[in-house]
Write a structure and sequence with these properties.
The complex is a heterodimer of chains A (251) and B (266).
Chain A: E1 6-15, E2 18-28, E3 33-37, H1 44-51, E4 59-64, E5 67-68, H2 74-81, E6 84-87, H3 99-103, H4 105-108, H5 115-128, H6 145-157, E7 163-167, H7 175-192, E8 195-200, H8 203-209, E9 212-217, E10 220-226, H9 236-243
Parallel strand pairs in A: 3-8, 3-9, 6-7, 7-8
Antiparallel strand pairs in A: 1-2, 1-4, 4-5, 9-10
Helix pairs in contact in A: 5-6
Chain B: H1 12-43, H2 49-59, H3 64-86, H4 95-133, H5 136-142, H6 147-184, H7 190-200, H8 203-229, H9 234-265
Helix pairs in contact in B: 1-6, 2-6, 3-4, 3-6, 4-6, 4-7, 4-8, 4-9, 6-8, 8-9
Classes of the chains: A alpha/beta (251), B mainly alpha (266).
Family (chain B): Belongs to the MlaE permease family.
Keywords (chain B): Cell inner membrane, Cell membrane, Membrane, Transmembrane, Transmembrane helix, Transport
Protein name (chain B): Phospholipid/cholesterol/gamma-HCH transport system permease protein
Chain lengths: 251, 266
């Protein structure tokens, strides 16, 4: 069996009296696209932030390419982060910088650098997400929500990460724009050969972009299986969630 | 978790005071950690000279009109008050001396500090607070850029550098304001007014003004950045951060001004 790209074991996190994660076990193989579904507040974002090292779990182990990353700091953590790209839910573009400096931020870290070369790299990455060079000098606030999302995607892929995280990639977009983003994610995962972890509560999106789906409920993974089984999982939690019923084991 | 046993009425005030002290110490500790991280991050590359100069412009250059207007009106009002009060003891000749000492030692630094705090602490808290709630700070981290190094350090150092320069300008304009009123309205002789001004102000006064300005600059940026960095969720969180930044910067400026004055003259 191939070694897992990312492996979470027993990840727990408590905020005050709230046990947000309660022993999450999750493994992602190289080149696999996994979607984690679950309600708002089920701990999806916290899981992602634990892997990115933005939040330190109270207990458990996170391995990336076999290397334990819980407890890493400073340079060691930065070296692992170099493998990650992240698409934030609200895009999180830097609104004080023009588009081209946003897209190349992972390469420049905000420092002055060869502007001509950076603009070329920005253009190339924008092209990958279906945007053209006309927006290079615009500020993020001058773009529509869908375009911001695509610029954020270009920023995430610019350093050619091995792993990309997508936090609710289709939230806040109309169904057509959402599908454009889904198609982009699928083609990026295929073309660039990256490992992808998406958290979403958009079933159409999960079915389209993921090879495998896992469901998070009350801080635990309650089901995991191939995307084709999503609608006949036999799991009451998954059934209630994918059919969007108010009645069921999830209250 | 705190026990829910009822506190006997007689010790309730002590419990409240104790809680407040513990809370205050915790805040002081967090601010000290924040400062330590910022300074440590600034000691090693990469450096951001571009960001530093950008902040010098924001904090210093663009605040000059506000600071200049504040200084000229204050200097003139001060001259008028000293003249009116002094005329009762036929002591109107003290006008230039009191204006220059009052401006340089106290009003120049404090008024510049307060004006810039109102302008800059609030803007920093709002900008960094918005970056916090829109996940831009998390994005910086995932793009392997230290936000202390990239955002906080340039603001802190720029403010510490900019404030002394602005206080020098404010002092000059304030003295000019007093002179203008004295000569134009109170019929002072220009040359003797300036001679008295020169005799009563010393290099040490200016040194103290510059030290005060540097300290105020530090608090202005520190409070703006700290509150923005720790902003809670949503628009309300950013609003709270902005208000807390300005209020705490004001209090720290006035308290540290008193302490420095008391140390030098006490």
């Amino acid at each position: 069996m191939a070694e897992n790209k990312i492996a979470l074991e027993g990840i727990s996190k408590r905020f005050g009296a709230m046990q947000v994660l309660d022993g999450v076990n999750l493994a992602i193989e190289p080149g696999e696209s996994l979607a984690v579904i679950g309600q708002s507040g089920s701990g999806k974002s916290v899981t992602l932030k634990c892997i990115l090292g933005l939040i330190r779990p109270d207990a458990g182990s996170i391995r990336v390419d076999g290397e334990e990353i819980v407890g890493l700091r400073g340079r060691a953590l930065d070296r692992v982060r170099a493998k990650f790209g992240m698409l934030f839910q609200g895009s999180a573009l830097f609104d004080s910088l023009p588009v081209w400096r946003n897209v190349t931020f992972a390469l420049t870290h905000g420092q002055q650098s060869d502007a001509k070369e950076m603009r070329r790299i920005a253009e190339e990455n924008l092209e990958r997400v279906g945007l053209d060079a006309r927006i290079l000098n615009l500020r993020p606030s001058e773009l529509s929500g869908g375009m911001q999302k695509r610029v954020a995607l270009a920023r995430a892929i610019a350093p050619r990460p091995e792993i990309i995280f997508f936090d609710e990639p289709t939230t806040g977009l109309d169904p057509i724009r959402a599908d454009v983003i889904n198609d982009l994610i699928v083609s990026l995962v295929d073309d660039l050969g990256v490992t992808a972890l998406t958290i979403t509560h958009d079933m159409a999106s999960a079915r389209k972009i993921a090879h495998r789906v896992a469901m998070l409920y009350r801080g635990r993974i309650v089901w995991s299986g191939p995307r084709d089984r999503l609608y006949d999982s036999g799991n009451p939690y998954v059934d209630q969630f994918v059919q969007g019923r108010a009645e069921g084991p999830i209250q | 978790m705190p026990s829910s046993e009822p506190v006997p009425l007689i010790i309730a005030p002590f419990v409240a005071i104790g809680r407040a002290v513990v809370h205050l110490l915790a805040v002081v500790g967090r601010v000290a950690m924040f400062t330590f991280r910022t300074v440590r991050s600034a000691l090693t590359p990469p450096y951001y000279p571009g960001r530093f100069f950008e902040q010098m412009m924001h904090i210093g250059w663009f605040s000059l009109p506000v600071v200049g207007l504040t200084a000229v009106f204050t200097g003139a009002a001060l001259a008028q008050q000293i003249f009116t009060a002094g005329s009762r003891f036929s002591a109107t000749s003290t006008v230039p001396a009191v204006v220059v000492i009052g401006m340089v030692r106290e009003l120049g630094p404090v008024l510049v500090g307060l004006m810039v705090a109102g302008r800059v602490s609030s803007a920093m808290a709002a900008e960094i607070g918005t970056m916090r709630v829109t996940e831009q700070l998390d994005a910086l981290t995932t793009l392997r850029t230290d936000s202390y190094r990239y955002l906080i350090a340039p603001r802190l150092f720029a403010a510490v550098m900019a404030l002394p320069l602005m206080v020098l300008v404010a002092n000059a304009i304030g003295i000019f304001g007093g002179w203008l009123l004295a000569v134009e309205k109170l019929r002072f002789n220009s040359a003797s007014y300036l001679a008295v001004t020169r005799r009563f102000v010393s290099v040490d006064d200016f040194k103290m003004a510059l030290v005060k300005a540097g300290v105020f600059g530090f608090f202005i940026a520190l409070m703006g950045c700290y509150h923005g960095f720790n902003a809670g969720g949503g628009a309300a969180g950013v609003g709270n951060a902005t208000r807390n930044a300005v209020v705490s910067a004001f209090i720290l400026i006035l308290a540290s001004n008193f302490l420095i004055t008391a140390m030098v003259f006490g």
